[in-house]
Design brief:
354 residues, alpha/beta, Spore Coat Polysaccharide Biosynthesis Protein SpsA, Chain A, 2 domains, 4-stranded mixed sheet, 31% helix, globular
Length: 354
């Protein structure tokens, strides 16, 4: 049977100070009154019944996940005791699903993605399922037509231009890391490069097989957990798995991969710049949550707590995020670097602000 695994274990350091360790971005209302997790769950529920939707999250966030998703069945939270990146998280999900259903096929869905066209999005997932279920590899990926030369995303290079062959499996050449501006423009012009939204479909048994071949430490640790949910055993297994993403650790090593080209509005809600791009009517428009008075400025993102006025003069294309205990001000085009502030707070031992 088919399953959906929502990955909700990220830390969201680029969205500090609203995203914190105790309440990371996926459980925060960043775009409107609903959290990214709630939006993702409702979107997935359009095609999956509750019993076949799972949420992978850290142990410290399980309570908040259940509060936000009261419909989630008991036992459908896949609990990571510590964060070991996506290879461990997805591998553990594959193990638990294979125990329930040896023929399980599942899609991994990031809880922090913005999707504007749910129908086209779900059509792409359906095509990816069909490809993974019918192919020997048991893996398929969704790739998105790039709307502009984005330097913050990874790309999927195809053997030939997509043309009009959307939702058809096409052979992939390789993963391409985040390019510079010149190369990103070349990728967009080529017709052979697609954004990588990390939307993967796996046969659970095939994924576990591939882990054994390419990430043996992960495979050994996961095999030790088959048939047991003992908390100490799970923690030991996670500690034994090197911290690495599924992209670097496994996907880039696989051959004969196929990509499902799709075209729908998508964004990784990974920085304050991305939040502005999603919510602004144009790049020079202000986006405000709270009270803001701006004079001789534009293109700013302003978030303020209730009862707090933020006033700006002559400020353009900046991010101002005001919370009760921290204030962030930075250029919008450098919002990806906010994680360096988090790293500096960690270095100084200012854990109360993390």
């Amino acid at each position: 049977m088919r399953y959906a695994v929502i990955l909700a274990g990220g830390s969201g350091t680029r969205l500090w100070p609203l995203s914190r360790r105790s309440a990371p971005k996926q459980v925060r209302a960043l775009l409107d009154d609903d959290t990214l997790l709630q939006k993702t769950y409702r979107r997935v529920r359009q095609v999956f019944p509750p019993e076949r939707v799972f949420v992978s999250t850290l142990a410290e966030h399980v309570g908040e996940v259940r509060r936000q998703l009261p419909e989630l069945p008991e036992g459908n939270d896949i609990v990571e005791p510590i964060s070991r990146d996506t290879a461990a998280a997805i591998g553990y999900a594959a193990l638990r699903l294979s125990e329930r259903d040896p023929a399980a096929v599942f899609v991994t869905i990031n809880a922090d993605a913005y999707i504007a066209d749910a129908s086209a999005y779900l059509d792409a997932i359906e095509s990816a399922f069909q490809s993974a279920e019918s192919g020997d590899r048991g893996v398929s990926l969704v790739g998105l037509t790039p709307r502009y030369p984005e330097t913050g995303y990874g790309y999927l290079e195809l053997a030939e231009p997509v043309g009009d062959r959307f939702l058809q499996p096409l052979p992939m050449v390789r993963f391409v890391e985040k390019p510079d501006a010149v190369r990103a423009a070349q990728y967009v012009d080529s017709g052979r490069h697609l954004w990588n939204p990390a939307l993967f479909v796996f046969r659970a048994s095939a994924l576990l097989r591939d882990l054994a071949a390419h990430l043996p430490e992960h495979a050994t640790a996961l095999a030790s957990l088959r048939g047991t949910h003992d908390a100490h055993a799970v923690t030991r297994a996670f500690l034994a798995m090197p911290k690495i993403s599924i992209d670097y650790g496994l996907m880039e090593k696989l051959t004969d991969l196929v990509v499902i080209p799709a075209s729908f509005a998508w964004a990784d809600v990974g920085s304050w710049r991305a939040v502005h791009e999603i919510l602004a009517r144009d790049p020079n428009a202000d986006v405000v949550r709270g009270m803001h008075v701006g004079v001789e400025g534009n293109g700013n993102l302003v978030v303020a707590p209730p009862g707090k006025l933020v006033a700006t003069y002559g400020l353009e294309h900046c991010v101002i995020i005001d919370t009760p205990d921290a204030l962030l001000i930075c250029p919008r085009d450098r919002a990806q670097e906010v994680k360096k502030i988090v790293e500096e707070l960690e270095r100084r031992g200012l854990n109360e602000y993390l």
